């Protein structure tokens, strides 16, 4: 199991588990940098708001950038892109003190969350497909462009997914 997760083979991990690899927790405040980053990104007028989950362990079974489904904020799962790791482009002493953080951006931010987002809510994030390892960007502009590309790649992953997969996810969420 750990080998599949470390290799980013989320399909093999899901096969072994009987469901996608999932991380749950309370949404906590971050630096709100995602909102600022997107001011210069085309098509991201509301920013790259994220739902942040912090962890005390230093070495997660999986790390990188993933296409995800977020449960607990709406009647159906929300599609998103997430970074699971230590954010190498930012100061390691920033907010999370170099610890592992799961930052999830919903591709279609739910309007009912408003500017306060999901703070304090318990969410469940399914890591469906690894897009790539964490990258260290040389500037905030490069980071912004990287996040925009990750969002495009996650949208492409979901567009290529079968309707049966989407129905299975939605049905399981209601059970």
From TrEMBL:
Its EC number is 2.7.1.26. The keyword Hydrolase does not apply. Residues 16-159 form the Riboflavin kinase domain. GO terms for biological process: FMN biosynthetic process; riboflavin biosynthetic process. GO terms for molecular function: ATP binding; riboflavin kinase activity. It is an enzyme of class 2 (transferase). Keywords: ATP-binding, Flavoprotein, FMN, Nucleotide-binding, Transferase. InterPro entries: Riboflavin_kinase (IPR023468), Riboflavin_kinase_bac/euk (IPR015865), Riboflavin_kinase_dom_sf (IPR023465). PANTHER family: RIBOFLAVIN KINASE (PTHR22749:SF6), RIBOFLAVIN KINASE/FMN ADENYLYLTRANSFERASE (PTHR22749). This is riboflavin kinase. The lineage of its organism: unclassified sequences, metagenomes, ecological metagenomes. The gene is ribF_43.
């Amino acid at each position: 199991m750990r080998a599949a997760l470390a290799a980013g083979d989320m399909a093999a991990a899901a096969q072994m588990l009987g469901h996608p690899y999932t991380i749950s927790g309370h949404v906590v405040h971050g630096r709100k940098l995602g909102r600022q980053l997107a001011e210069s990104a085309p098509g991201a007028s509301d920013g790259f708001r994220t739902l942040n989950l912090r962890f005390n362990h230093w070495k997660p079974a999986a790390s990188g950038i993933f296409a995800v489904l977020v449960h607990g904020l709406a009647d159906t799962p929300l599609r998103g892109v997430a970074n699971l790791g230590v954010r190498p482009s930012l100061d390691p002493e920033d907010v999370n003190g170099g610890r592992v953080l799961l930052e999830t951006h919903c591709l279609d931010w739910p309007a009912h969350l408003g500017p306060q987002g999901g703070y304090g809510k318990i969410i469940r994030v399914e890591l469906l497909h690894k897009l790539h390892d964490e990258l260290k960007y040389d500037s905030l502009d490069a980071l912004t462009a990287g996040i925009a590309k990750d969002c495009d790649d996650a949208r492409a992953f979901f567009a290529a997914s079968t309707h049966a997969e989407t129905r299975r996810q939605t049905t399981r969420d209601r059970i």
